[in-house]
Design goal:
- The structure is a homodimer.
- Chain A is built from 3 helices and 7 strands; from the N terminus they run ααββαβββββ.
- Chain A has a 6-stranded mixed β-sheet.
- Chain A is α+β, with helices and mostly antiparallel strands and about 130 residues long.
- In chain A, a hairpin with a 2-residue loop joins strand 3 and strand 4.
- Chain A has a single domain, classed as Nuclear Transport Factor 2, Chain: A.
- Helices cover about 25% and strands about 45% of the residues of chain A.
- Chains A and B meet through strand 2, helix 3, strand 3, strand 4 and strand 5 of A and strand 2, helix 3, strand 3, strand 4 and strand 5 of B.
- Strand 2 of chain A pairs antiparallel with strand 7 of chain B, so a sheet runs across the interface.
Amino acid sequence: MDETLRTRQVVHAYVDCAERRDWAGFGALLAEDVVYEMPQTRERIRGKPAFLQFNTEYPGDWHLAVRRVVADGRHAAAWLDTRVGAERQEACVWLEMSDEGLISRITDYWPEPYEPPAGREHLVERW
Amino acid sequence: MDETLRTRQVVHAYVDCAERRDWAGFGALLAEDVVYEMPQTRERIRGKPAFLQFNTEYPGDWHLAVRRVVADGRHAAAWLDTRVGAERQEACVWLEMSDEGLISRITDYWPEPYEPPAGREHLVERW
């Protein structure tokens, strides 16, 4: 199978399995030595068991949906719409695949709302 | 030329032209009706003239470098290392191309550092 196509399918399956709490399916997509990073908090999780535990223990009634997946060889980026209860947030996820087509590296960004700086009101509209 | 390859080249050129303040080159990559959005501040800029002005007026000694570009047909994602003076921040940028291979939509996320929630110290390392 074409590498980009395989990567795209794996990333969709990663999000879908998490949303369905299909942890067997989710784990089957991960390399044993997967590394998960959240640069905003400078947190890193190493290895499939710890990363699975992180996900299964993650608190709240959280939901994930793909807004867009961009796949390019062994690399991908996923733009997600997430929700915990009534609170919605977008996420930007960067992924890398191993030789075997398993997810070997995941970097999550959780950008939060902030107030725009002054001085550009003449160029922008708000929503 | 292959659409994905063209998209990848345009995205690299977009970052490189901005970094070099090559506004003629930068503008030549943009569709006339380009839409730029920053969802964190709910700001939107419409059209090439306003978006060019936004960039040329952007304050500070800012610098951009590509960490990764993922291109997939007319879609791309760019992971950037940015710096203003000594302050460094990563950015996640989502791009779409027009029929003519020009950038028609840009969505920027500027994720800021935050403190991790309690309860996952047993799974993570910090850096």
